[in-house]
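Below is how a single chain appears once it has passed through the pipeline. First comes the sequence as given, then the structure the pipeline wrote out for it. We keep one example in the README because the format questions we get most often are answered faster by looking than by reading.
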Amino acid sequence: MADFQMQRSEDGRYSVKAHGDDSDFVYETELHASEELAMEAAVRWLEWADNLAIGKTESIYYILVVPETWPGPAPGAHPFSGLHLKIGRTNDVLKRLQNLRTGTSGELIIMALEPGNAAIEQARHAQFASERRQGEWFACSPALCQHAMNTWQRNNLLPPEHQRRMLRLADRIHAYRAMRDALGAAPDMVNPSLNENWRGNVFLDLVYTNLVKKGGLDEI
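Resulting structure:
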């Protein structure tokens, strides 16, 4: 059961904060013209959150793919530069993730979830149309990544394993940037096959990739 707290902004609009039984912050609506609209938005969000875990509500998902051969962001680029993000819609995001794994070789990370339907999905695709690459995959531009991060922070709901994966990816990005600084440039090869000739500067990541399997890390 959530506790709702109505708030009024300086310009006369309203928002609602929803708190859980333990009084921890859960969610805050956007600003609305009336108390009624703000409360309706809070109730809709709570219904979505309650039904999310049992697969009885539609969600818009943002799934990040991180290839093993990704060299990390270029100097001065945003942290997720060079990666792709899938924007889609489902009732069961973990099942959708499993289906995606059959055709995707990189690590898949649920970056954000939000309440949604077909119209909102289409709106998100139109919003980031210039970043579209293939199907529902989009280049991780600064604007798209900021939107996904804001969506994660606003809705405050991700499977715990994927929260840990996002934190682990932040560590990986930091390590890759340090590697680039040490080399003075991007490596010529990143995590290449053992069955090909290695040339130039070769970077093997034995910590953050599947080159060395670690029990339990790759399970949701």
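The first helix runs from residue 35 to 52.

See the next section for the split statistics.
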